[in-house]
Amino acid sequence: MAQLWGGRFTKETVQEVFDFNQSFSFDKRLLKHDIQGSIAHVRMLAKQKIISENDAALIKGGLESINDDAAGGKLDFSDGYEDVHSFVEALLIKRIGDVGKKLHTGRSRNDQVALDMRLYTRDEIDEISSLLYELLALIVSLMKQHKTTVMPGFTHLQKAQPVTLAHHLGAYFEMFRRDRMRLADIRKRMNLCPLGSGALAGTTYPLDRAYTASLLGFDGVMTNSMDGVSDRDYLIEFLDAMAIIMMHLSRFCEEMITWNSDEYRFIEMDDGYSTGSSIMPQKKNPDVAELIRGKCGRVYGALTGLLTTMKSLPLAYNKDMQEDKEGAFMAMDTTAVCLRLFTGMLATVHVNEKRMRDSASHGFTNATDVADYLVKKGVFFRDAHRIVGELVLYCIEEKKGLGDLTLDEFAKFSDIIENDIYEAIDLDTCVRERNTVGAPGIEAIEEAIGSYELYLKEGR
Predict the structure, then answer these.
(1) What is the pLDDT of residue 2?
(2) pTM of structure
(3) What is the pLDDT of residue 7?
(4) Distances (CA, A) of 179 to 2, 61, 173, 188, 435
(5) N vs C: which end of the chain shows fewer Cβ within 10 Å?
(6) Could you tell me the domains of the chain?
(7) Mean pLDDT over all residues of the chain?
């Protein structure tokens, strides 16, 4: 088919070159946003009397009919078009005649695609933010259920101190809340309209760029036309934010996979989010969690790919920038589906509270509390640390826990330990007494939950 730019050329593009050059196979998903931008553009052209109101109405009606047909699945997206912009324009001219050729007045495909990607990315940011909100709401609900569910906390994958499941979940609430805050920051920073930048140097037509921006819900216009068409830093930021989201999901999945193992048995995955083995009938595999963990690499790759594409480009637009789309679309789709599946998986998981508590009761998770007990009795902390280390070594040799020792055994290491040691190092005491801000004690956790609920109420 004839290209929008064919006038200067005397030969048809080699088919292999056309196939290599075209972007319609993947940028057709921008159709709704391309039409949205075109309608705003044509309204502005009429307002500025660059085209007549009648022509604008005819063009607007034609664009709306294309959008309606696309929504109804009635459009033929077969190959033959270079990009979504030429597809829409050709279809418009076919429907309303030569007046459709006025649509592109005062703009370039450079600022048109820059606009389309901003509109699309803005919607995707809103979608990812909404999915994060749903996950945050679920985490708060689970925290309320498990305020007193004692479990071991770990450092270096070694049992460290007793915490609660609510406390552990709260750490992920904080991570995902920061992810959502990052998205809000990016959205605010990117919400400027590039349309009117032209190919790189603006246009001689008396465009009202601020009017177009307002129609499209932007906070203003990009104030340098070369910047407007030649940078994708907002998309790089979004890919970076999604990479961090996926990293957080991957870490959470790693823990759930571990907790779901027979060695831990802290949780059991729901059948609906598990799969079986083709040869081992007893197997129930956490494939959803594993795939989310694995797909993290895809999003990392998209971020690295776009950074690499952009790193050496001179101003202004270069065809390399067409490479901003496929990886970004894949990353957006991947992050969204992983958030949806992870939320469903977490909502249906069965928590083995007894197993968590039993695990916390072993591994000397209350050793620090013995040291704190000694400090409160007047022992210097460094001396207390040494005494407890010797106590732990003794327990290992005797195959006992700290709470299993008699007062006579304690006395071998410190003569100031009294009967109140047993209450001091009880698991419930160890957790209950930790009520500084951010700690697992019930008061601290309830305060945290209250602040999280307020955030959800205000941040919807």
Answers:
(1) 46
(2) 0.94
(3) 67
(4) 46, 40, 10, 15, 26
(5) C
(6) 15-105 (1.10.275.10), 110-152+163-199+222-358 (1.20.200.10), 361-443 (1.10.40.30)
(7) 95
Question: Cα–Cα distance between 398 and 392 in angstroms, integer?
Answer: 10
CA distance 286 to 296: 16
- Band (pLDDT 50/70/90 cuts) for residue 410 is very high
**Separation of alpha carbons 317 and 110, rounded Å:** 7
Residue ranges of the alpha helices (H) in 260-366? 287-310, 325-348, 353-360
* Alpha-carbon span 365 to 273, nearest angstrom: 32
- Cite the active site residues: 156, 277
Output the CA torsion 327→75→37→64 (10° steps): -160
pLDDT tens digit sequence for 329-354: 999 999 999 999 999 999 999 999 99
Number of Cβ within a 10 Å radius of residue 282: 6
- How far apart, in whole angstroms, are the C-alpha atoms of residue 130 and residue 177? 12
Omega before 71 within 30 of 0, i.e. cis: no
Total residue count of the chain as it appears in this document = 460
